[in-house]
Design a protein that fits this description.
Elements (H helix, E strand, L loop, with lengths): L1 E6 L11 H8 L4 E6 L12 E2 L9 E2 L1 H11 L4 E12 L2 H7 L4 E6 L4 E2 L1 H7 L2 E4 L9 H12 L31 E2 L2 E2 L2 H4 L3 H19 L11 H10 L8
Parallel strand pairs: 1-2, 1-6, 4-7, 5-6, 5-8
Antiparallel strand pairs: 3-4, 9-10
Bound molecules: adenine.
The site of adenine has 11 residues, from strand 5.
Length: about 240
Amino acid sequence: MNFDVLTLFPEMFDGIKHSILERAQENNLININLVNIRDFSENKHKKVDDTPYGGGAGMVIKPDVVNKAYESVCKPNSRVIYMSPQGKNLNQKMVERLSKEENLIILCGHYEGIDQRILDKIVDEEVSIGDYVLTGGELPAMVLIDSVSRYVEGVLKKDSIKEESFSNGLLEYPQYTRPEVFENVKVPDVLLSGHHENIEKWRKKQAIFATCIKRPDLLKNYNFTDQEKEILEKIKNEVPNTK
Ligand code: ADE
C-alpha cells in the first residue's frame, strides 16, 4: 500500500519510521512517500501561503501550490484524504475500509487552512481523529497511517487483529505473563489450568465485562451470540447501570 503525504513538515514523520512500521516499509508492504508542499512553490522565497480574502487572522495555503504537489503523486486510483477536525471521526471500520485502498494521498493542513477551491477539486474524504483541534494535520496523518497499516497483509502476525479491541466489537480481555505471582497478586487460576474451553469462556466474560464498564456505548451495536447473552445476564449484577 502506498501513502503519499502532502505536508509542509515532512520531518515530523520521523515518528513512524520505527518498530513495526519500519519493518513494514523495509519489506515493501507499505510505502510512505513524503511530499513537501513547499517544493512546489514558484515564489523565490518559497512562500506557500497568503492572507485570507475578506480579512481575518492567519494565513491560507495557496491552491496552485497544493495542486502541483497533488499532481506530482496522483495516480488513477488515488483516494485523497484531507486531515481536518471538520471531518468524519476515524474509527476501526473506516481504518479497515481504507486499508483496502492501493494509493492514499493524505493532505495535511496548517495555519488557518487551505484554499477551499483546491479542497473541492481533489479531496474525496475529510477525516478527523477526534473532536479537538491540533496545530496541523501531521499528527492525525500519522495516526491514520499507523492504524491503516496494521490491516495491510503481512504487517502484523495473522491472529493479532482478530482478538484486539474494537475489531470484533468488544474490548480486549486482560493479559498476564510471568511471574505467576507479582506483589502478592496471582495470575487467575483458569489461565494456568490448560483447559482451553474454560479459558475461552473466561476471556469472553472478561471482554464483555470490560466493555460494560469502560465502553458501554459499544454494546449497542454488538451482535451477542446466545452464549454471550448468557454471560451478560450472569455479570449484570456485577456491573453498575447495565440493562
Ligand atoms: N487537524 C487539526 N486538528 C485535527 C483533528 N482533530 N483531526 C484531523 N486533523 C486535524
